[in-house]
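Q: Hi! First time doing this. I have a protein sequence and I read that you can turn it into a structure. Is that right? Here it is:
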Amino acid sequence: MHSRHDLKPRASRPRFALTPVAWVAFAVLQGAASRAVAQDEPPLVLKPSPMLAETLPPAARDQQPTYVSGDKASGRTDLETVIEGNAQLRRGDTVIRADRLEYYQPEDLAKARGNVHINRAGNTFEGPLLELKVDAYEGFFLQPSYRFLRNNAYGEAERVDFIDDKRAIIRKATYTTCQRRPGPAWMPDWILRAASIRIDNEEEIGQASGAVLSFMGLPILPVPELSFPLSDKRKSGLLPPTIGLDSLNGAELTLPYYWNIAPNRDATFYPALMTKRGIDFGGEFRYLERDYAGELRANFMPNDKLRDRDRWGYAVKHDGLLGAGLPFGPVTLNLNLNRVSDDDYWRDFSRSTSSLTQRLLANDGSLTWSRGDFTLNARALKWQTLQDVTAPIVPPYDRLPQVVGRYTSSNLPAGLDAYLEADYTRFESNPVLTGQPNGHRAFTVARISRPWQAPGWFVIPKLQLHSTQYGFDAPLANGATTASRTVPTFSVDSGMVFERDATYFGRNFRQTLEPRAFYVYTPFRDQSLLPNYDSAANDFNFATIYTENAFGGNDRISDNNLLTLGATTRLLDPDTGAEAARFGVAQRVRFKDQRVTLPGEAPVSERLSDILFGATINWTPKWSLDATVQYNPKTGRSIRETIGGRYSPGNYHVISAAYRLQRGQSEQIDVGWQWPLNDLWGDRGQDLGAGNGGGEGRWYSVGRLNYSLQDRKLVDAVVGLEYDAGCWLGRIVVERLQSSTTSANKRILFQLEFVGFTRLGSNALQTLKENIPRYQYLREQVTAPSRFTNYD
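A: Yes, that's right. Below is the predicted 3D structure, encoded as structure tokens:
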């Protein structure tokens, strides 16, 4: 042991004190520091010490000296030391205190008796008798009480056997995180009693044998073997079962098992019993490597009793590099594969993975190569469309295949920017449903621009040429089996930025005024006979109003002769640059009718478009407001409105609301919240920070409601209650999801969370997190506790 030479037999009361030499050294340092300050020299800076590290590496631990102190010391040099009265032994992050301490140096063995207390990196044990090999941390402790730093759990035992510095076995043990309260009759709300508990701080798990979990004095979970986390580190084993009541599937019981295969691979198996359907065998596999990563999820239900058939679904995601050592550079592979057994899958299993609960399931694979300014992509996309007889949809086109090449350069001579794209795509779908023939399309887009920019203004002229060729499997209405189209486009984007200092409502700001003008000219080319494989009208908003084409995709290029005028003003904090408010307005002036349209739509003839108004306000961190209004000056009415706001005065206090109107189509209100009910009767709780709740004995209301004003009915709803008892949390959530135009799926979720131990019941937390904006967990360890928070 490297620290043996530091142990010396001591006389009475060897306390820490400054010797005369130390006093002289201290005075010299103090004088030096004073002279440095007086002479404007850099002050003395303390150097960080490895002794203050959260974890001590084995090499550093072997170098740690051993210190002993007490009222009376005796012994033989390099053999044994006996300390009596206030005895203490300290080495690195280990401290032993007792009434009597015997330390045998050749065996590195410490024997402590009477009021023994040991602190190892913040984990403490107290009891009458301890024998421990200090470096190996091997020994035993009789009748100890203990407390763990990670989750503040504690308990009592008949004996603790220390196997090494990472592992221990606690015999006839109790375990809880309910903190002691005054009164002799107090009992913890929940407690685990076990014949033995194996603690593994390296894997950060506990393994209880012969265990019984009691809640409010009632045994609720007797199990022969039970593992539980000591932190949020991954571990293999059975996860807590989930139980739920579903109006469609009946009672649901899921028994998940997690397999921590390797640090970069894991799998979860989650067989679920549905009383109305049968057993759904589900599983998920995830992997992460240096050059690739992905996940696979699959479900299989043999003989669904409600549908009288087998049900299955799978989802695969993969992203990675191929041929990293090839001379022409690596190729990126991306896969997104989704498929289910039948059209009713999205309705019957609405809480499966989001990719499998939609009506359009993508099976998409692509290879991408890039070098410098060049990019080449090859893609295959095939859709599975889940039809509903009450609301059929037209399936999108498969792309089998699509090959795209791109060139982008922003450092050409004379300050020019260039862009070139070439695309070949084969489109396939059901001609009966789409009403147009399958075929292939090849197009080329060439674009060149010359930006002029300065701190207060910019002008960007741009010239574009779009050329397209088609080939069809069946003739068009005019009998043609091929078609072509070439469309040029010229545009100029320009703007200015003015700034001034301003004061509003007692606050100083840097205010900007940013006018913008965008002109585009595209001559008319007749495209009425061309099929529409991928074009759709762009949404009318601030992002698209300054673009050249009114359509997305490449089958329709709108003819334009229009000018877009707009202005934005922002209020910026002069010290931080944070944006407190932004207001914008924009409108298009059309100089001639737009004749190119999508099939079945009328041409645009209004000279003045609707006016866009937008506002974003973040005046204080508590409040935020975001609004966009599309206003028609002819009718004097808004066409679309989106107004949303959020109020969040602190942790676990958030209310968000949004109003969305699309006149003649939909009108909805969306409200979400998380709020302590105790606030209603004046109990404001405590500010314990994120992840710690607001104090014990508090009720929280949580929920989200989506209501259709046009249909006068509730669309989706999640409403629940949470109770924080300090060492346990209770949740009950009622969920209603619209599964079709005429039916909805409802279920009730119950969950008990024993803080620092486990959760029982349905997975209500996932539902709340997915549905309520800015929802916060009442218990979430943001940072691991430091061993110095429990330092002796």
